[in-house]
Amino acid sequence: MSEQTLPTQKTSNWSPARIASAALPLVLLSVVVAIFLTTGAGIQSPQGLPPIEQIDVQRITLPEPNLVVVNVINSGPDPVTIAQVLVDDAYWQFAVEPGSEIPRFGTATIRIPYPWVRTEAHLIVLVTSTGTLFEAEVPLAVETPAVDFGTILNFALIGIFVGVIPVGLGLMWHPFMRSLKRRAMNAILALTIGLLVFLLIDTASEGLEVAARVPGAFNGLILFSAGALLAYLLVQIVSARRGANRDEASGRMTLSNLIAVGIGLHNLAEGLAIGAAYAAGEAALGAFLVVGFTLHNITEGIGIAAPVAQDRPSLAAFLRLALIGGAPAILGAWIGGFTYSDLAAAIFLGVGVGAIVQVIVEVGKLLMRHGQREGATFATWPNAIGFAAGLVIMYATALLVAV
């Protein structure tokens, strides 16, 4: 007589008891917070003390003659009321949208009908209802580019010239790299690590600088670090899946895509800087600067092509790599030129740092595997020379865009 097994009943993970046990701590926390806010827990605040005020100027634009627009955020713990505005030591009329009182973490747009003078500096002072002063400066007064089709196209062309074109030109060295022997190819991979290390240092230093300008209440350094960590983990997950059910050629192409992603995020940061500087009217963004960025970024295409040097990718694959590595400069130029924010820039730069670190790890693993196949260490003179050459080339070309 065969035994019969009774079907087991599955216990729901969302039973009322489980939901209640998850919600109870939150309910009790809400009660505790409500009691504290109502009673103050017996702590009496000193009477007569002024509020703590902190206003951070996010952006100053000059959309048309006789108009200055100041975007601010209240990063302090108390509401702030804008009572007066001084421009070049003179009180001036102004209008605040949505209102003169700015709540905590609230933003406001201050419109000042002031006859600014082209190419001259102007000092703006915001005076709160308590008499606290917050200063901001327009170092070089030029009309801010309007968001229209012509300006959008101009920023896109700048991104193409400093991002897509140099990366594409660097990829054109692929046929030459195919003719190299294994030791020389390993040196090219080491050169790739060198240029990625330079980009890492450059992106990290810029990210820390931008994070320091983020209003303190938003913890710019934490946002930068969190962006780096999350990007590192995300790229690590993608690279781990690369090894599953893939042949070596597919793995090498995936590595080239990862390098393009890391370089693309760096070029996004470059686009942010270019767009913001162009919007501010910095004269340095002329033809010479565009040529400098082109020369600086052309080696990035070499790094992207290095892992697939022994393969024959299709033209479509090369076009995809060029767009991944270079097109983010277009997006960066748009963001920087029209809606630049230190907070967003800190996050973008952090993401770039994390992605580049993980890509360096992946290229290093590939170089080590090549060394193991040949029964040698990856620490060879050709590799050391290639790594140093990557740093030197990036440093030398970076001098062309130093402003």
Question: Any descriptors?
Answer:
2 domains, alpha+beta, 11 helices, four-stranded antiparallel sheet, 403 residues, globular, Immunoglobulin-like, five-stranded antiparallel sheet
The low-confidence parts are none
User: Which structural category do the helix and sheet elements fall into?
Assistant: alpha+beta
Mean pLDDT: 84
Q: What separation lies between the terminal Cα atoms?
A: 90 Å
Indicate the multimeric state: single chain
Would you write up a description of this structure?
With 403 residues, the chain is an alpha+beta fold. It folds into two domains: 55-138, Immunoglobulins (Immunoglobulin-like, Sandwich), CATH 2.60.40.10; 149-401. 58% of the residues lie in helices and 13% in strands. The chain contains eleven helices and nine strands. Strands 3, 4, 6, 8 and 9 form a five-stranded antiparallel beta sheet that branches. Helix 4 (182-213) packs across helix 7 (287-305) and helix 6 runs parallel beside helix 9 (328-339). It is globular. 37% of the residues are buried.
